[in-house]
Design brief:
single chain; 5 helices; 64% helix; 0% strand
Length: 103
């Protein structure tokens, strides 16, 4: 785990330095980091939503500010839907099959 943390720190520091030098934007610093890399090994995130996921639903010239607002407004509904669907998937796990394959 120590190596993973130090590697992430190195990547982050390198990206920040590139942004300071004007080689990339500060927004690109975050875009070049994968949130899943920051999770403990026993944790998963099944999905993330971005304004690009909404863009096709809106008129072509809709400003990003509007899309961000919509995404924030529906965040609770997205979370509730993911939790509900996730529990369904967990309830449907064939425990015996997994135990057999692990042995």
């Amino acid at each position: 785990m120590k190596e993973k943390v130090l590697s992430l720190q190195n990547k982050f520091n390198t990206l920040v330095e590139q942004a300071k030098l004007g080689e990339i934007t500060f927004e690109e610093v975050l875009q070049n980091l994968n949130i899943r890399d920051f999770l403990p090994n026993d944790t998963v995130i099944t999905t993330l939503w971005h304004i690009e996921d909404l863009r096709k639903k809106f008129p072509e010239n809709t400003p990003d500010k509007v899309l961000i607002e919509v995404l924030h407004d529906i965040q609770g509904k997205l979370e509730a839907a993911a939790i509900s669907a996730g529990w369904y998937v967990i309830d449907e796990i064939d425990v015996e099959e997994y135990i057999k394959s692990a042995l």
